[in-house]
Structures are given as C-alpha cells and as structure tokens.
Design a protein that fits this description.
The protein is mainly alpha-helical. The chain has 2 domains: 76 residues, Arc Repressor Mutant, subunit A, CATH 1.10.10.60; 115 residues, Tetracycline Repressor, domain 2 (Orthogonal Bundle). It is built from 14 helices and no strands. It is flat and about 70 Å long. 23% of the residues are buried. Keywords: DNA-binding, Transcription, Transcription regulation.
Length: 243
C-alpha cells in the first residue's frame, strides 16, 4: 500500500501504524530531528539514512511514518515556519493598523527564514501547502480587509513583501535576530574603501553620509525595514489614489 502523500501528512489525515509492537517513534519526533539536522548542516545533508542514525532506529522504521524525503521536507517546512504572528498582539494603536501588522509580519518571516535558511529552497514553485503556510497568507490578506485592494492585489502585496524578505535572507544567510548583519558588512566594505575609496567615490560618499552616522539604529538591519517601509508606502499611495 502506498504511503501517505505530503498533503495528507500536512493536514493530519493519516493514521498511526497499527500493526506490530507499539512504535517508539512519532511523526513529530522525526520532523523535529530532521529540522535540527537541516538547521545545523543544511538540507543537502538530510537523508533518511542519516536521520535514522540520529534517531537511533532502522531506516525502514521511518517509512512507517513518511514515505520519502520530499514528503518529509514538506512537513519540515510547515512545522519550522510555524503560524504567523497574531494580529491582535502585533497591532498597537495606529491610524494604519494594516501597515503595523504587515511590518511585524514581514520582520517575523525574515527571522524565521534566517533561523531555517533551507526553507528558501522549499518555498519555490508548485508544492503541497500546509496549514501554517496558508495561515501566513490568510493573516496578511486579513490585515488589508477594508482597503480598496482587490483580492489579487492583496495577494500580490503579500508576495511583494515576502520577495523582499527572501532576497535579503539569500544575501545574509543564517544568523540570530540580534546579529548586526549590516554593521558587519559596513565594516568589511569600510576597510576596503579606506584603501580604494578614490576609485569608488559615490560608494565612499554613501557610506560616509552624516545621516548614517547620526542614526543610532544605522547598520542594524536597515535594508530590511527600509524596503518594507517603501513597499508599504507604495501600497498606501495606491490605495489613497483610489479614494
């Protein structure tokens, strides 16, 4: 009999194996160990044999729960990313609550991707979609309820924000939320410009801009928030033009 599909695993429509002795494994345990392995060594290092070794079981025991690596990866993605931030918890008093929420939404997505950079590879192209991934989309669209945006426009707004997040994660890789990634980049480029700045005057001038020096948060993930703000500025202007 064929094993469960990725969609069946994601949406909890499968049943635990009944035959034989009481199983020592669970799907949750298998997925958690697979996530830990991918976080530590990358998705390329994940194999059913390697996972079985870490779990202390026979490789064939895993197939009672998940038929293969592709189905396992689908559940890993949905589990690792988890649900989107709650709307009520993310919204302070604001005249533009949709903007406040989508900012929190995008920053949280950025941090989730950085914690699990292998998820970038798994979130491209047609694939089985799990409940957590749909929850992220649902909450983003809910934030724009009441706007003049059509359904497709709201979808495109969420995709645009997520594209900005993904592009930055691809550049910076994995790290913790508190890492000063831009500060590190500024120091690296600064050392080069100190020796070769005359050949790149505009780059040197941009890095020496007094506005950068007077901002206490300069160099701390500003590209992320700058991009989010400009995308949301564009959405706000687009909505306002329709009124």
């Amino acid at each position: 009999m064929a094993g469960p599909t990725a969609a069946e695993l994601l949406w909890g429509v499968t049943k635990a194996p009944r035959r034989g002795p009481k199983p020592s494994l669970t799907l949750d345990r298998i997925v958690a160990e697979a996530i830990a392995l991918a976080d530590a060594e990358g998705l390329a290092s994940l194999s059913m044999a390697r996972l079985a070794e870490r779990l202390g079981c026979a490789k064939m025991a895993l197939y009672r729960y998940v038929p293969g690596k592709s189905e396992l990866a689908a559940v890993m993605l949905d589990t690792a990313f988890g649900p989107a931030p709650e709307v009520a918890a993310a919204l302070p008093d604001s005249s533009e609550p949709w903007r406040e929420y989508l900012t929190v939404w995008a920053v949280t997505a950025f941090n989730r991707y950085r914690a699990h950079p292998w998820a970038l590879e798994l979130t491209t192209g047609p694939r089985p979609i799990g409940p957590n991934e749909l929850n992220w989309l649902e909450t983003a669209l809910a934030a724009l309820d009441g706007s003049s945006l059509t359904g497709p426009e709201r979808l495109d707004s969420a995709v645009l924000l997520l594209g900005h997040v993904r592009s930055l994660v691809q550049q910076v890789g994995s790290a913790t939320e508190d890492d000063d990634m831009e500060g590190q980049l500024v120091r690296e480029i600064g050392a080069i410009l100190a020796a070769h700045g005359d050949s790149f005057p505009r780059v040197a001038a941009a890095f020496a801009d007094p506005a950068e020096q007077t901002d206490p948060n300069a160099g701390r993930n500003d590209a992320l928030r700058f991009g989010i703000d400009r995308i949301l500025d564009g959405i706000a202007a687009y909505v306002s033009a329709r009124k």
